[in-house]
Recover the amino acids of this structure.
């Protein structure tokens, strides 16, 4: 039986907040930095989405379906593409039409709702499923949670919604001696199959590709295909999951990342025992080898692979808890503007900006952060939250 | 290693932060086995001499004999000459004037062989004269003692440092705790600026208390960047200071504590207070201190109509300062230019969250304080409101801030200073 390589790319952009002072509370309900959001979406579309999609389309046509890819696009990224970069959205739709691209479901808002509110979590997934169907004409069968956050109970909720497959991190502290390169199942509901990210091979591209002080620089497609083949000598499946923005944005075009991507499928398919599949196909093909016990939530972030990047300090927890206090009010309000704003405020990014871990480590945090300090991020967010709370309470 | 150090004050009798910094630094140096001879213009005898040997300049005669006087005078007479020159002289007149001045100075001083000058050691009217006489005494002290490096703190002692260097040939390190620009804005005293610049130029190394100050030294005094090093000040707090205090008012208290002068940014505090009070009345603002902008501040508060929630305490000292911190919920330091700024650390030590201006040296070492541009009144008001309104914010800044300030040890700062000493001593040894 052939061994499988699975490629999945995450597409997400948050609605960044504008500078919202406390004297705006109760007066101004305009929370978002349209200029920044538009500029960033336009930039990422030009550098990444559009050229990368063009290349993916070429590759799918060239290998006549032997090359398959998978995306998860957050609802608020889809919204922003519609608003600010419709060409990018069209190019994703073109890819969908080939029939060789799987679209995953996630929470519409790229939210952390799975950690606090099962009902909100389910609601948001439903909204996202509808959005994917609307834009890409397929109903998602596999699920990825925000930041690959996963636990036994989250998996059980996802299984309960009818998804057959879920993607998460191959976290070392969960796996121990076990290999991430097999299919596992949820510990509470064995019907849900789990695909685990191979973080070493994923990060070789996503983080290390252009790093000249890396021992394996420069990374060629041939060398990389050799590593994949090596990992699959015994094991079943290698899952390469990463942010799509790695192509052209985090790793600039000048690093040769597109040339690498262009050459990679050929080099993989040269190994006659390898094939490239989407998560749902791979999960149907390979036998799961064991249930995976994950009592506490894991994610794909930082060394800890836990949720401390978003909910690790008291600022984040306070903001998070206050946000969901108004959930019922917002849902019952029948005010579409209020509901829209509430959705946007749930994006995990807002909590990421309040992370204090980067004082000691993590250049990654700084790269993605529009604020100078987590304290500024918190104050700004809380001001906005105060206003939306007032709006919700008045209804 | 032995250091001849010139200061102006030393605890317990201090007027500002300089004496405290000297105390902390010398204790740190002692731990790294650096011996310090600390010269000050007027010692009282009750200074803590465990880490330093204090030399009281008031007890040292400038020169004992005529010959010694001539020798010293040839080396250090430069001090007075240039600072008193009349501008717009031609080269010949200039030389004549210099000779004249030199002779005059000699005449002034020769009557004082074996005499001691009683320094006030304060910052009074005769400051310039004291600075000059201090340098003459310094030369004498430099002749009488053995040491490896000279270290002079702030402009008052730079001339003393230069004199000691001329007499002994040992390397000079000057330590800039503040520049004239920090004290006076753009309206500087050019005589002080001159003395500062001459100190910096004559020094083998210049230590600045922050990168902010280092940049001023490089850009405003045109000193070669390679010899200017930033060594951040530190504090030696053993534990959190918590004192019980009963409040007379139910509202939260936001405090400004410092001199009410242009450089400390009091007007930004007032404008921010006004903005916060538009939104909530559950807060009182306190401005503690005195200074040349005091009257203007009171008038502005009255004009804005916020006097019922804005209070002035006048100048506070000792216990009252600590009580004021204990009374506060938020501490604000909106300084326009602050070489370092120790007061936010004292506030944080008393479990009070601090908002500091980005234009302060202390902002370079603190993560767990909220930083705003001094001129950005909106950001300042927003930060005050945030600390008053969102409990997690103040809880976290206090908790993490305390940990952070406890890691700012004089030990570490002193080690950096010691390395700077070593670098000039090596350089010195290489000379033929």
């Amino acid at each position: 039986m052939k061994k499988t390589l699975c490629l999945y790319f995450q597409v997400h952009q948050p609605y960044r907040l504008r500078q919202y002072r406390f004297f705006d509370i109760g007066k101004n309900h305009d929370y978002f930095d349209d200029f920044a959001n538009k500029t960033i979406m336009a930039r990422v579309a030009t550098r990444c989405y559009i050229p990368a999609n063009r290349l993916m389309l070429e590759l799918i046509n060239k290998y006549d379906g032997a090359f398959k890819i998978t995306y998860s696009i957050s609802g608020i990224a889809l919204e922003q593409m519609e608003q600010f970069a419709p060409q990018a959205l069209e190019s994703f739709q073109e890819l969908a039409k080939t029939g060789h691209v799987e679209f995953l479901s996630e929470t519409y808002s790229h939210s952390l709702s799975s950690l606090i509110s099962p009902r909100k979590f389910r609601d948001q997934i439903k909204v996202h499923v509808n959005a994917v169907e609307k834009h890409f004409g397929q109903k998602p069968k596999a699920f990825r949670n925000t930041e690959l956050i996963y636990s036994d109970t989250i998996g059980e909720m996802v299984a309960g919604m009818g998804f057959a497959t879920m993607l998460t991190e191959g976290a070392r502290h969960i796996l121990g001696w076990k290999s991430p390169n097999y299919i596992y199942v949820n510990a509470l509901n064995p019907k849900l199959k789990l695909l685990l990210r191979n973080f070493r091979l994923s990060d070789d591209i996503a983080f290390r590709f252009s790093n000249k002080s890396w021992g394996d620089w420069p990374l060629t497609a041939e060398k990389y295909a050799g590593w994949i083949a090596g990992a699959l000598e015994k094991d079943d499946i290698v899952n390469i999951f990463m942010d799509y923005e790695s192509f052209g944005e985090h790793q600039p075009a000048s690093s040769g990342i597109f040339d690498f991507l262009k050459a990679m499928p050929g080099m993989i398919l040269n190994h006659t025992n390898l094939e490239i599949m989407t998560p749902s196909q791979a999960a149907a093909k390979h036998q799961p080898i064991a249930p995976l016990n994950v009592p506490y939530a894991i994610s794909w972030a930082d060394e800890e692979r836990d949720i401390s990047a978003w909910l690790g300090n008291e600022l984040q927890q306070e903001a998070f808890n206050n946000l969901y206090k108004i959930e019922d009010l917002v849902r019952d309000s029948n005010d579409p503007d209020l509901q829209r704003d509430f959705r946007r405020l749930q994006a995990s990014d807002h909590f990421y900006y309040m992370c204090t871990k980067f004082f000691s480590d993590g250049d990654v945090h700084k790269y993605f952060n529009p604020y100078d300090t987590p304290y500024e991020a918190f104050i700004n967010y809380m001001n906005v939250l105060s206003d939306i709370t007032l709006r919700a309470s008045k209804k | 290693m032995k250091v001849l150090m010139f200061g102006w004050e030393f605890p317990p009798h201090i007027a500002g932060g300089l004496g405290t910094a000297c105390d902390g630094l010398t204790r740190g140096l002692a731990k790294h086995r650096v011996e310090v001879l600390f010269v000050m213009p007027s010692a009282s005898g009750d200074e803590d001499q465990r880490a330093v040997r204090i030399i009281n300049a008031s007890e040292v005669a400038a020169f004992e004999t005529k010959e010694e006087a001539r020798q010293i005078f040839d080396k250090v007479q430069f001090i007075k000459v240039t600072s008193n020159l009349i501008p717009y002289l031609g080269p010949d007149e200039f030389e004549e004037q210099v000779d004249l001045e030199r002779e005059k100075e000699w005449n002034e001083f020769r009557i004082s062989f074996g005499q001691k000058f009683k320094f006030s050691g304060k910052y009074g009217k005769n400051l310039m004269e004291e600075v000059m006489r201090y340098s003459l005494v310094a030369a004498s002290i430099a002749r009488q003692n053995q040491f490896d490096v000279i270290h002079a703190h702030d402009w008052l002692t730079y001339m003393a440092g230069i004199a000691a260097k001329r007499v002994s040939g040992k390397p000079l390190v000057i330590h800039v705790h503040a520049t004239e620009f920090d004290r006076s804005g753009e309206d500087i005293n050019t005589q002080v600026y001159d003395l500062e610049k001459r100190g910096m130029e004559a020094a083998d190394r210049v230590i600045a208390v922050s990168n902010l100050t280092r940049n001023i030294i490089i850009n405003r005094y045109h000193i070669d960047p390679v010899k200017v090093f930033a060594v951040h000040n530190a504090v030696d707090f053993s534990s959190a200071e918590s004192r019980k205090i009963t409040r007379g008012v139910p509202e939260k208290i936001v405090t400004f504590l410092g001199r009410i002068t242009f450089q400390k940014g009091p007007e930004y505090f007032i404008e921010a207070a006004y903005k916060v009070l538009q939104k909530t009345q559950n807060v009182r603002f306190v401005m503690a201190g005195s200074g040349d902008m005091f009257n203007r501040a009171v008038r502005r508060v009255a004009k804005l109509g916020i006097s019922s929630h804005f209070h002035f305490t006048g100048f506070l000292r000792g216990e009252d300062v600590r009580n004021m911190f204990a009374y506060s919920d938020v501490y604000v330091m909106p300084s326009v230019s602050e070489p370092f700024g120790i007061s936010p650390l004292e506030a944080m030590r008393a479990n009070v969250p601090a908002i500091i201006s980005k234009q302060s040296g202390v902002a370079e070492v603190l993560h767990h304080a909220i930083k705003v541009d001094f001129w950005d009144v909106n950001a300042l008001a927003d930060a005050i409101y945030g600390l008053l309104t969102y409990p997690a914010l103040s809880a976290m800044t206090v908790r993490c801030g305390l940990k952070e300030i406890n890691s700012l040890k004089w030990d570490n700062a002193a080690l950096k200073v010691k390395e700077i000493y070593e670098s000039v001593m090596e350089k010195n040894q290489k000379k033929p």
